[in-house]
Structure formats: C-alpha cells, structure tokens
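Sync notes, pocket subgroup
Present: LS, DG
LS reminded everyone that the earlier model was apo-only. Rerun requested with succinic acid included. Inputs:
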Amino acid sequence: MKLVPLTPSIGATVEGIDLMSLDQQAFDAVRDAWLRYKVLFFPEQSLDADALCRLGSCLGALMQLPYIRPMEGHPEVIRVLKEADEVGMGVFGGEWHSDFSFLPAPPAASILYSVDVPPVGGDTLWVDMGLAWRKLPQPLRDALVGRIAVHTGKPYGAANAPEESTRFRGSIDIARGNPEADRETRHPAVCRHPETGEEMLFVNPTYTTRLDGVDAARGEAVLQAVYAHCTRPEFTCRWRWQPGVVAMWDNRSTMHYAVNDYDGHRRELLRVAVAGEAPLAA
Ligand code: SIN
C-alpha cells in the first residue's frame, strides 16, 4: 500500500488496497498508519452497509449510537444524508466535534463511506488535537491541565453550534429527549491516548458545555480561545470527497467538521463508530 500524507501532521491517503480483501498483516499496517496519521482516506472502494460493518468490526466492537435513527436493518449504521431539496438547514456534524464525546466511553474510531457527493462542496475537515495541545500557549495549557470538562448531547453544547431551528431536520432523524444524550458526562480536558500515549486536548464546541469548577465566564473564555487555536489551518486537513471513499479516523485525537455549503445537491455517506474506552487524564 502507498501512503500519501495530506499534511505534515494529520491525514493520509492510502492507495493501492482493497479494504475488502486485506489480510491480517495488511490490516495491521493500516492500523499503524491510522494511529500515526489520525485520519486515513481510501479511494476507489466499493462497500455496502454490511461490508462497512465488517470493516468497522476489524477495529473493534461497533456501537449503537444514541439519538440518531439508524439505517433500516442496520442498527450500527447511520446514513448521513442531505437531499438536494433540503436547503437552508443544518447538517449532521456541521460544527467542530469529536463524535459522541458526551458518552462515558466515546467511540475510538469512526468510519465514513461516501455514496453520493456534490460536484463541489460538502468537504470534511479534521483537527489534530495532539498537535494543537503541543502548540497551545502556556497560559491556556495552565488553564486546562488537571481540569475536568463537562460534555452533554443536549442541547448540542456551546454557543456557536447552529441555531436549534436549523439543526438536523430532513433526512437525518434526531430524537431529542434521549437520556443517554441528555445527561452530563465529565472527561479530562487533556487526555492521554490509550494506544500511543500522546497527550491531546479533549474538548469540543459541540458537546463541551463548561470546565468544571471554573467561573462560567472565565471557563467559556478559555474554551473559546482553545477552539480558536485548535482550528488554525496548520493543525487541520481537509478532504474533498468523491464517491467510493472510506475515511477512517481516530475519534480520540481529532475533531472534525462537515462543511454545509452544497445546498441544491445530494450528499449521502454511511457511517459506523467503533467502541472506545473512558478517556484517560494526561
Ligand atoms: C460526521 O460528523 O460524522 C459527519 C461528517 C460528514 O458528513 O462529513
């Protein structure tokens, strides 16, 4: 397989492999590259929902996710769909986030497979939260070390999440009032990766609501400064989709953002999430 990095830190395209016919040695090489680059892109794949589940299962146990209606007949698969006539509304994942960070054990990995994409637009961006942590100015590091951040799925966290009225109508069916999403969960703001040992930020503007034990205004100012820092272009990669691409990312060490700039075009991806463990303090 040939690895082509997208940036010096995060993201690589993997060429020359068929994900459906990997032997153990090849899969181990993919896994190592996934931990190194945090998000891998595999063009020219041909999967259906069953095949996506088989692929995800190679990384770990698939999760059934709270509050989103899964695909018919596939309780672990979510259809990330916006139809061409669904204009002027929010999209699933249209703000920086780590998937389901409000769960006591958020996913370790997420996998997307592109079925149908706009001719242009609908890109996805990822942030390297390890690099962002290492480059964080000292006063912000001091404000986060040893801190606990509070996460909740309700009401999609922070002030800069999309307006309630514009969120997730249409083809993505979000059930509100789900106790698993509505409760608050506490995670360390700076975590240690359970496999690589890397220290990284684990807060995000969608699900993190506050820093525990910090004055509300001060905590909000810290979080906003941290988000402004993390999302600097030098910590990110951006992917322009074509149909038939698998993106596999480490949800523990990244945030991502689905760009909602393709009104009038259909976009459909399938996704699964792989179980992780409770985040460890750095
Ligand atoms: C997500 O947050 O999983 C959706 C990403 C995308 O649609 O690009």
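DG: The domain at 2-281 is CATH 3.60.130.10 (Double-stranded beta-helix).
LS: The first strand starts at residue 2 and ends at 5.
Action: DG to write up.
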